[in-house]
Fold this protein.
Amino acid sequence: MSNVVFPTAQTRAYLDTAAEGLPPLCVQAALAEYWQEKAKGTPGRNRHYEVQAQAEQAIATMLGAPASDVVLLSNTSDALNLFANSIQWKPGDEVLISDLEFPSGVLVWLRLRQLGVKVVLIESHNGESHIEDWTAKITENTKVVCVSQVSYKTGTQIPFLEALGAAVHAAGAYFIVDATQALGRVPVNVKNVDFLVASSYKWLLTTHGLGIVYIAPALRDTIHEATAGWHSVEQVFHPDRFTTYTPKKTAGVLQSGMPNFPALYATNASANLLLNLGIANIDNTLKPLVTHLRRELHKQGHNLLTPADPTYASGIVSLAHETPEAKMADLAEKGIIVWGGDGRIRISVHLYNDAGDIERLLAALRP
């Protein structure tokens, strides 16, 4: 991993991938290629569509899914709203979420309260989440269970996603996973998942402007369309286009118009880089750094929000702090970039980090 160039990581200890990932130089080259093809006008579209297919295949490979089940939309919030608008709701339906969810995975469901939908909150225990906490709340009224594989807040990774998905399906409900803080950093799979979303600009090391979406074939066959456009149909210029249309049978049915081609070029480059390095290899290589970081922060007396049990470990370690914004600014002056806010300091460890970055941070945080 040391031979991959990240210019920013060479000048400072960058430990804030959970907010913004650093793009490697191959992403810069990919954006330059987009510009060259765009400058050709319409002839450049052939290459645009090739890159779109390649990017979808790379993400699908990362998820262990067919490319036909993957579509790259504008962002995860839009994708979640698209799903919420694609199923039939009735008063009394319930959505289960946890107190570790990012706001986008909360607001989309709170909005449905106007339809009589109830949002049920699953509380964590010192950052830990147990499958029994979820299954105990699943009832005949449960319509959706939505969970982040890795919490943006604490870095807690849910180790029982597959089993939870099975329990959700046994109840006749939909299982939704937000993999934003996981995809590109820890292994992700879509077994028993109906709908998965992830952002592009964090651990995937690419640009803004893409929401990674996986939709299971069975789900595509049961939901109704919440959007339609010339990219979501099988044929555009057919004789009966003013009276009828045929939706695509792939995940592409969710993409109504032109995709974000610059972001697709960038994502194709970064996703293939990550695949070549191996996500499991990245995770296994960085686990000792994450373990050391949490252990030493605990020794220093910090109030850790991230569970000690390695079963829950990810690329994030969080600690409570009374003045997180001020501490973040202080660390930035020392050349150490972390995230501070909402009562905590959040530290992210990705493939451009090493033991030197961790020791530099620990020295700066030492009481």
